[in-house]
Amino acid sequence: MSSRFNKKSLIRWKVYIDRSKMYIGYVQFLLIIFVFIKSLGDNPVTEFVFNSPMIAVPIILVIFVVASLLLGYLDSRLGFREEEIRNHSKSNPVLMDIQKSLNELNDKVAQMEQRKKTKVQSKQIHNKPLKRD
Q1: 60 exposure class (CB count in 10 Å sphere: 0-12, 13-18, 19+)
Q2: Contact assessment for residue 49 and residue 37, using Cβ atoms and an 8 Å cutoff
Q3: What is the pTM (predicted TM-score) of this model?
Q4: What DSSP element (H or E) covers 66?
Q5: Could you report how far apart the first and last alpha carbons of the chain are, in Å?
Q6: What is the rounded CA–CA span in Å between residue 88 and residue 82?
Q7: Helix 7-39 / helix 44-51 crossing angle, nearest 10 deg
Q8: What span, in angstroms and rounded, lies between the C-alpha atoms of 90 and 31?
Q9: pLDDT higher for 124 or 19?
């Protein structure tokens, strides 16, 4: 492969495509709302949406944004995102290597602190002045 089509470029392009899928998903969701409204058949809501789109579309957009914010807030409050990230981390070998290294460092620090504590206690016992009556 030439230098223009190296691995990093392909990965960057994939990231761009993945990010764009999120935005395309918003548009798809809005289109699904309109298809759902159309499937309701002849009723006042359907007639209003398709006969007065200049009024109905902004109302639908506002409802969409408010509902999305509410769902996102509930998702954050209930901790679903954190748990999802935790599960992704467990399957990521690089993050697992980092976690393993951190655990080893924490163990070494704890051992060093324990040795230091033991030395200080030992020194205090040996340097304790004798009581005089």
Answers
A1: middle
A2: yes
A3: 0.52
A4: helix 53-78
A5: 90
A6: 10
A7: 120
A8: 36
A9: 19
